[in-house]
Each structure stands twice: as structure tokens, then as C-alpha cells.
Sequence to fold (466 residues):
Amino acid sequence: MTAPNPAPPMIKMAGVDKFFGPLHVLKNVNLEVPKGQVVVVLGPSGSGKSTLCRTINRLEPINSGTIEVDGQPLPAEGKELARLRADVGMVFQSFNLFAHKSIVDNVLLAPTKVRKVPSNEALEHATELLERVGIANQAEKFPAQLSGGQQQRAAIARALAMRPKVMLFDEPTSALDPEMVQEVLDVMTTLAKEGMTMLVVTHEMGFARKAADRVIFMADGEIVEDSTPTEFFSAPKSNRAKDFLGKILTH
Amino acid sequence: MSVLTNFSSLFLSAFGTTLKLFAFSAVGSLILGTFLAMLRVSPVPVFRAAATTYVGMLRNTPLTLVFFFFTFAYPLLKILKLDPDPTAIVALTLYTSAFVCEVVRSGINTVPVGQAEASRALGLTFSQMLASVVLPQALRAVVPPLVSTMIALLKNTTVAAGFSVQDAGSISYSLSEAGADTLVGLGWVAFFFVLLVIPLTLLQRSLEKRWSVAR
Ligand SMILES: Nc1ncnc2c1ncn2[C@@H]1O[C@H](COP(=O)(O)OP(=O)(O)OP(=O)(O)O)[C@@H](O)[C@H]1O
Ligand SMILES: [Mg+2]
Fold:
């Protein structure tokens, strides 16, 4: 008998399998992310990184295994799942800002509709967040009127408006022009320093070295390596990781 | 001109009735049609099947038959007695809602799936997602076909004349009973329909213009 752990991991995946038809996309994935940790997920295209990310808030249901967020198993689709998702922020590669709403309304929608935060309080928080990501002066514009970097920062503000316990990022800078990558990474780095629990799928090695506590390397739906950034970049254990790093670093 | 001046009160009351049928059926069919479209994309299979069946039936039935049903078959059910005008509104609403449903559904299909995913990831429920994110964008995308459906509804109101409603479609009967020139009278009827369509077209243009900036 062990004493019950007072603080459950923020994310816990145990024996997770996921299929797309005959395709085995996640193979017996086990992963625990403690509160406050910043995990970078690396791996070649098609290795299941996005799928891993999307199973954590059940945008993709899994075929077997269990997933818990902050000690709470993911419920089936419905009100309870919606409540849990409200605590899990997600940032997409393609931003997915609500096209018909201004930037500030994008940030306000979920807090007022889901959390029923009074509108003046929500507006105050939204303004603060937009200032924090550096686009307070764009608040009244529509998403299509912003640059990619600004849109992605707005999307981060929108996720933070729900005061999430954990943030998931699926290649947040991959759709951006090179000169806009850094402004988004800066916001993420600050967030990491402030103690946010983060799971970040990215190809930005600089971010992984600087902001990550832990690097997970995936290949063919499996977690192949799980180590610190220093360990991973200086002495990868598996051949696949060596191969991957060779390709990435020569770019 | 004499037809119009001699029968001005007939024209006024008939077009008044036409406008009443149109206004009630337009509001009713937009609401019911949008609701049906929500059912058609619902995750609940029974809802989807029910809405699909409804749309399939109403869209494939001639409007006259829908009127026949509500005028002759429905009273036999002895649920609630309806006068000719409300009967016409019910028939027009149910019939038009099937078309509105299909237009709105095609609009929903134009909304990128990322919009729904972002909503779900933020904790919006299915109905919140539809109401706040998907439907507003879907409706913006289908203004022209939706207005066309409403123009068709306006013209379809004349079918009611065959079922004891004194609307614009009945003007020619009244004129011929009174021995007036029905051909000239019909010309005027057509002219007033053209006038009634103009505000709908203007509405379409202003909505398209207003919403084009937002994308
Ligand atoms: N909705 C889907 N239906 C069928 N197959 C899918 C679906 N989504 C992903 N896949 C497949 O699952 C595998 C893993 O996809 P995933 O998107 O998780 O990879 P990834 O590591 O994120 O790749 P990338 O770096 O290209 O984004 C791929 O082979 C992909 O083709
Ligand atoms: Mg991916």
C-alpha cells in the first residue's frame, strides 16, 4: 500500500491505443505530465504527435486505455466533457479563430458562455490577456485582418481566457511566416516560465532547448524516447531519434 | 388603370393578406428550417433521421398537396380547428422550412471544421457551438439562396387562393366574378409582386455587403 498521491499528474495516459481504421496511430502510450511541467513532443511527420495531443481533450476518442486530466478520467461526449475541456486550453496550427467575431469577442465568447463570467469582468480579463500577448491595439479587428503571428497570439489569449490548468499546442508556429515565429514562441516561453503545464508539439528546437523541462520523441505511434532536452539533443539513445535529429539539424 | 381604381379596396385587402401569409410563414420557416438543419447535423442519430425524413417528404410533395392535407385531411383528426388563413400559414411554413433546412445545412457544410474544433476545445456544448459559432457563419454564407427561398415563398402564397384564402392569388377570381377585365387585373398583380420582391433583393445586398467585411 502506498499513500495516495496528494497531487495527481496533470495529464496521465495509460495504455492508450488509437486506430484510424486499420491504421494503428497510438501504440500503448503511457505518459504522465506533472503539474507545471513543459513537455515538447518531437517526431517525424505521421508519427502520431497531433493525435496524441488531440486525445488529451478527446477531440479524438481513443480505442483503449485511460486518460486522466488532473486526476479526472475523460468522460464521454457531453456536458461533463465540455466542462473538462474548458480547463484544457488548446492552440491549433491553423489558429481557428472564430472568423465572424472580432478578436476581443473571440476571447470573450467562452468565458461568458461557458463559465458565465459577468461581461465587465470578462472584458477586463480579455483586455489584460490581449495586452499580455501584445495585440491590445488589434482588439476590434476581425481575424482575417491580422497577420498569422497576431492571429496565433490571439488564439493563445482566447485559450488563456478560460484560465486553463494545462495548455496543449499542436505545431503553433508551423503555419507562420518565419519572421512571425519568434513572437509566438516568446509568448509561449513566458507562459512556460510562469508555471503553466504545457504539452507542445513543435519543430522549433530552440524552444525545446530553452523552455522545455522534458522532450518526448515519437515514432510510428510509440513514445521512443523520454528525456531532458539536454540529454535528448546531446545524446539521443535510439537510432530513430539520431536519424531525426540529423535531418532536422542539417536544415 | 380603371381596374385598379375601381377595385382598390380588393387589391389592398388581398395584398394585405398576401403580406400576412408571407410574414408569418417567412419567420416560421426560417426558425423551423434552421432548427431542422441543427437536427440534421446533430450527433444523435434519431434526430438526424427524423429531420431527414421530414425534409425528404415535404420537399418532394407538391405544395398544393400540402394544402390539401391541411384543408381536408387534417380537420378529420379533430385536433385544433384552423381557419383558412392560419391553415395556409401552417402549410406554407412546413413546406418552406424543408427548403430553408437544406440551404442552412449547405451553409453549415461551408464552415471549416476547425471552427467547431476550437469551440469544442474551449468547452462549448454542441448547441452553444451551433448557436454562437457555426450557425452565424453558415447563415452569412447562404444569404443569396436563403433570399431566393423567401422569394419563392412569397410567390407560393398564391396557392392559398385555391383554398378559400382571399389573397392576391384570388384577385383574378374576384375580378371575373365582378365582370371586370381580369387580364389587366393580373398585370397589376404581377406588377405588385415585382414591387414586393425589391425590398428582399435590397436586404440581400445589404446583408452580403455588411458580412463580406467580416471574412
Ligand atoms: N482523421 C484521420 N483519419 C485517418 N487517418 C488519420 C487521421 N488523422 C491522422 N491520421 C493518420 O494518423 C497518422 C498520425 O497522424 P498525426 O496527425 O497524429 O501525425 P503527426 O505526428 O502529427 O504528423 P505531422 O507532423 O505531419 O503533423 C498519420 O498516418 C495520419 O495519416
Ligand atoms: Mg501533426
About this structure: Residues 8-40 of chain B form the longest helix (33 residues). The two ends of chain B are 49 Å apart (CA to CA). The CA atoms of residues 31 and 97 of chain B lie 8 Å apart. The interface with chain A takes residues 43, 112, 114-115, 117-125, 128, 132-133, 136-137, 140, 211, 213-215 of chain B (CB under 8 Å).
